[in-house]
Give the backbone structure.
Amino acid sequence: ADGAALAADAVAFYARAGAELPVLVDRLVAGSTGGARQREALERAFVLARGRVRLLLQPADDGTAAPGRRVLDLDRRFSCRDCGREQPEPTPQLFSFNSPLGACPTCEGFGRVTGVDLDKVIPDPRVSLADGAVVPFQTPSNRELQEWMLKAAERIGVRTDVPYGKLRADERAFVLDGEPSDAPARRRGAHRFPGVRGFFRWLERKRYKTHVRILLARYRGYTPCAACEGRRLRPEALAVRVGGLDIAQLTALPIGEALAWTENLDLDVADRARASALLAEVQARLRYLIAVGLDYLTLARQARTLSGGEAQRIHLASALGAKLTDTLYCLDEPTVGLHARDSQRLLDVLGNLTRAGNTVVLVEHDPVVIRGADHVLDLGPGGGARGGRVLYAGSPADMPVERSETARLLEARVRRLADAAAADAGVASAPPATAKRGRGSVKKKSPAPRADGFTIHGARENNLKNVTVTIPYGRLTCVTGVSGSGKSTLVEQVLYAGWCREQGQGAEAGAYDRLEGMDAFDEVVLMTQAPVGRSARSNAATYLKAYDEIRRVFAATPAARLAGVAPGHFSFNTPGGRCEECCGMGTVTLEMHFMADLVVACDACGGARFKPHVLAIRHRGRTIGDVLAMTIDDAHDFFVDEPRIRARLAALRAVGLGYLTLGQPTSTLSGGEAQRLKLASFVDEGEDESAARRLLIFDEPTTGLHLSDVARLVDVLHGIVARGATVVVVEHNVDFIAAADWVVDLGPDGGDRGGEVVAEGAPIELARRGGTATAEALRALLQASPSSRRSVANAG
């Protein structure tokens, strides 16, 4: 035992010294030494030498064998046979950026690090150095850096009077990294210009000052990790290759190409036997993703960048991969974000689930899916309090038109699209001078000094391929294309974020050359389906300021004046008239230990939100609590003599939210309802002088809308456009696209096969020309009746 300990100490000493110490562990005689002793000797040697053993095979000294000996090196480590460098064992965790064993130690598996965002430092490449291209150098405290840079640039010959975007590579290097080491001699005592990066490194040493931290935060951003080049894994994981690719390169392939790689993988017999089961499982899952129309995605695509429809289809592919039977699948709007071309493909996938013995229940508005279902359950007849009844249950082919709004709209769809085709043909040739809406005609204003529209030049973000496109002013424009063609990237990341960045709002925009004609707009609004607010105190009435008018009406009643009740007493957000037990909420939350909290009606006010003396005030026989419980439709009829209240409530009715109650919290609204509530704030009965200088951007506004609601939304947007506003919509709904004034179609496919403008024009023109997935969908609808066929044939 003492000898073993001494040997271990000696080995450790030599290892620290970088030298090797040969240690003789045992002598074995072939044919005489037992197998147990041989195994024991080898195990002891492997442990002592940390996985490396050398066998000296020497023939017996009896004269029967040739003299000499043979050396056999054994190595249990995962190491290079040539250089001996040891690598970690290739476990699954090594190839996961979510595991500390595989994540890049610099970026911790995120692929990005926090650093200086040069797009914020130099936001406009059209500006020259002399005119202030480097924004941080233009503040009073850093103005001397601007002068320093200009003097150094003059000394070494860097141009300061041309746009930064047109500088040579060495000139840009001067701006970013400072004067090179071989620059011309500076005057005695002069310091070397440090460049933008040197300036921020100097600021990092001053972080203890508050104003410096604020300045650094203003120009912070995420940059690709230099250690892993954004691949998120440590070098040892990236050193392992299969079929010529490391795991980062494999996951960067589109799913369709990844499937082809697995099918064409060249493995020897032994490796094929080991990997056959794994390959079969991987190929099956990739085929399911392709079956639901996601072949353009890469395996490395981050989940936060997926649309709602893409995320839902990934869940659907996961369900298919589980190969379950006798299972109930409930899907809510699976066609969200899905192009009309892929609706039938989705039906085929769902059919595979049912044929495997499962039951699939969909909440859906897509006509193709409704017609292709086995059984339809139609609820109605209206929304909110006017709904909740089963109107029809049975085969979609037998839906009664006289009882079902859905059946009536499906039947009338062809006729409505034929009218839209004729209207599109008129818009394409000569737009009318006036547009009817509401109680009168609204004169079409000239929205901007330019005649055509604004232009996005050289959009290159994600899969966009140097796209340049012009969008007309004062029109309803649809940006269309199959899933993954680059629609949201073009409209949100380039157009909207680019405008915000150029307004100095510090937004991270996609790559593009320039935006031309955006000075025609004073306001650009992005209408997403993000919640309006998470506060339970906000509701539709307070959002549109209708509740302020309602409070004034109640405070103006004789009973309120006599009791001294002011408008502030009718607010459930401030003390005074509200119930203080529930703080005006009408409910209280009971904390339940080890269980979910319970929300119950307030005992003090009975859920009415206000104190008794406030609830005693009545207007036309109704208390303020009764009014908050009214639907918007009922409240519109109730305040018949209050035009200011009716105008705000009419905006909510126009966007199809008349079924909501006035007091329903905005935190309970769906994404589509939240988007329409935002839209309602731009709906007005009269003319709006600022509308002509406003750009509204929508992303899939028809999500969750019934066919009747889609038609209502189209009317609302055309009414806004009639007052001079410009509206841009990212949309897949063919009914909506057919009613647009102009279409910009991206494609021809998704992912790397997309990102190009494949068609532009009025919907009727696209249907006439054909050649794209969107055009073929429009053609199929607009040619569904003789009148629409003549419109398509005569267009242009």
In short: The longest strand covers residues 453-459.
